[in-house]
Amino acid sequence: MSVGAPAPAAREPVLEVQDLEVEFVTEDGPLRAVRGLSYHLEPGEVLGVVGESGSGKSVAAMALLGLLPKTARITGSARFEGDELVGMGRDEMNAVRGKRIAMVFQDPMTSLNPVHRVGAQIAEAIMASGTVEKKDAAQRAVSLLERVGIPEARTRARDYPHQFSGGMRQRAVIAMAMANDPDVLIADEPTTALDVTVQAQVLETLVAAQAETQAAMILITHDLGVIANMASRVLVMYAGKAVETGSITDIFDRPRMPYTLGLLGSLPSIDAEDERLTPITGSPPSLLNLPPGCPFAPRCPMTRARCLEEEPQLRPVGGPGHHAACHFAEELSAVDRPDEVFAVTAADPVMTDELEGPQP
Ligand SMILES: Nc1ncnc2c1ncn2[C@@H]1O[C@H](COP(=O)(O)OP(=O)(O)O)[C@@H](O)[C@H]1O
Ligand code: SF4
Ligand SMILES: [Mg+2]
What pTM did the predictor assign? Predict the structure, then answer.
């Protein structure tokens, strides 16, 4: 592109993760928490990362920011605005973490210091940029607290974290995350620890913060319901891998991976007449010694011989950006209800027979 020419429509991703691997050295041997994860994040978009507990969501996020213990071996690449995060030195990382990439964790006390006043901590975060005077920072902290919905922010800024409710503490963390106008916000189960009655409000606050800062956001959750109204794209993780990626419509209306169907089946239906929940039975595999084949095979209602031998790779399954890691993804296009697939049991051989067609 020559200087002065109009910018092309395509935008550079703000974050590009490629083949990210995280292995922990444990007493029982190597534990592969993240296995070849690749994704990108467009400026200003909200990417929902979803999967059951233990699927590697947090580890994958923490690997980006150098937050894992020394027992973690990280390989692959994560390019953030042109800088490589994997292997980045401590000083350089300190200039990224909390400033250009801000985080909101499940437990607000991960980010808040119990012995300092809330307002002072937010001011501290503002001053970390090195360009704001103390008095202005204190003023800005109050205005950030106002913006995240803390009533009587000027007075409450002088409170200690324990004087805040859980919801207010998480709002304060969101205010702190906004402090340096980050380009990426990573929110890891930001409402999981909160009372259900305040979860929706705090999510709204988070989205408002994202919109205001125009940051791209990675919203990590075990609950597909949380991202339904918030994300534009979804990455489903299982056993350390991305097993399906796509737009919200791809994931909710035409999932191509039985695991995604299972997650959808675990959501309470909005349809009042249909109270059936069809959660996935069993639990995710141990990442210490993964057997060959599809890691979801022991729990999958569509498993057959090939699934036990060969692990499916993420591949295009339809529209742009829609990828799934299932040998038999195409068969799901014929099924429009998760409970139809997940109702299949050994006692119901009809469906199993139907699925037992010639292998592609
Ligand atoms: N410090 C660690 N040492 C060893 N294993 C870990 C460590 N942290 C996480 N793990 C393991 O990595 C896997 C992925 O964990 P995590 O990313 O926290 O899952 P999620 O956030 O999806 O619930 C799990 O099997 C977990 O036990
Ligand atoms: S590859 Fe086989 S076991 Fe894995 S999700 Fe697809 S059908 Fe199920
Ligand atoms: Mg987690």
Answer: 0.90
Helix (H, G, I), strand (E, B), or coil: what is residue 68?
coil
CB count in 10 Å sphere of residue 270: 8
Atom of ligand 2 nearest to the CA of 259: 5
- Point out the ligand nearest to the CA of residue 107: 3
Domains of the chain: 15-231 (3.40.50.300), 235-355 (3.40.50.300)
Per-residue DSSP letters for 75-128? Answer: EEEEEETTEE-TT--HHHHHHHBTTTEEEE-SSGGGTS-TTS-HHHHHHHHHHT
Q: Is 107 helix (H, G, I), strand (E, B) or coil?
A: coil
Which atom of ligand 1 is found nearest the CA of 56?
17
Residue 266's pLDDT band, with cuts at 50, 70 and 90, is: confident
SS3 94: helix
The Å distance, Cα 1 to ligand 3 centre, comes to 41
Ramachandran sector of residue 299 (left: φ over 0; alpha: ψ -120 to 50; beta: rest): alpha
Is residue 263 scored above 70 in pLDDT?
yes
